[in-house]
Design goal:
This protein is mainly α. About 60% of the residues lie in helices and about 0% in strands.
């Protein structure tokens, strides 16, 4: 399949800014409520309760509303544990999204694939009773697309295989470090599902990676995983 032409720099930045705005707005509203500027301090736990991904809803728990088991496949990615969690994911979005030579349509498609793939994997594999929130699954979707584009880049097979293996090891190490450092836990299932979905979509689309892969693998991987999809700190909701 012929490679797509590289978009202009402005065209490549616009979808990243749009995604950053979409992620920042909910956190800004909830942060203001946390500090009593508007609304109520219960807004954040209510947002997690109604919008977080509760794996138990796929195992017989009673939903708060009929569509919740399906809405949460998307809504979890719009919620974060706080400003630090959000900033980490925005850094990953900017670092990895900027490494893909794509227009708005493909960037948004890969992002959506990471969100859905991460949610499906968490629902299928997770056993935690706590909600999963955050956009890290989508960020790992971008990483997966970048990995596929870099691996498919023309060049000697041993060198490409070595780069692919190196990125894989960096991602595993990043998840282990986050798991050890986090009291709330790390949704590795979401990271895995997002990565796989992003790579799969990149295999179907003419996705191109920018720059020399040899020098950018470590930077992209480390920037893409500074934060994690956290199991929310809200108390477990009692369900029949």
């Amino acid at each position: 399949m012929p490679a797509a032409p590289a978009p202009s720099s402005a065209g490549a930045v616009r979808p990243l800014l749009l995604l950053a705005l979409v992620l920042a707005l909910p956190e800004a509203v909830l942060l203001g409520a946390d500090h009593g500027l508007w609304g109520s301090r219960i807004w954040r736990p209510l947002a997690w309760q109604y919008g977080g991904f509760w794996a138990g809803l796929w195992r017989g728990w009673q939903p708060n509303y009929a569509a919740q088991p399906w809405v949460m496949i998307l809504s979890y990615s719009l919620l974060h544990a706080g400003p630090g969690h959000l900033i980490g994911n925005l850094a990953g979005l900017w670092a990895v999204g900027g490494a893909l030579r794509q227009g708005a349509g493909r960037i948004l498609a890969v992002w959506a694939a990471g969100v859905v793939g991460g949610g499906l994997a968490f629902g299928a594999l997770a056993t935690s009773p706590a909600p999963m929130i955050g956009a890290s699954g989508a960020v790992f979707g971008l990483v997966g697309a970048w990995w596929w584009a870099d691996t498919a880049r023309p060049g000697p097979l041993p060198r490409r295989a070595l780069r692919a293996a190196g990125l894989g090891l960096l991602l595993v190490a990043a998840n282990l470090v986050m798991f050890a450092a986090s009291a709330a836990g790390v949704a590795w299932e979401t990271h895995l599902g997002g990565f796989a979905a992003g790579a799969a979509l990149a295999a179907l689309l003419p996705v191109r990676a920018a720059g020399s892969a040899a020098g950018s693998a470590a930077g992209s991987a480390s920037a893409a995983a500074p934060e994690k999809d956290e199991a929310g700190e809200a108390e477990r909701q009692q369900r029949q």
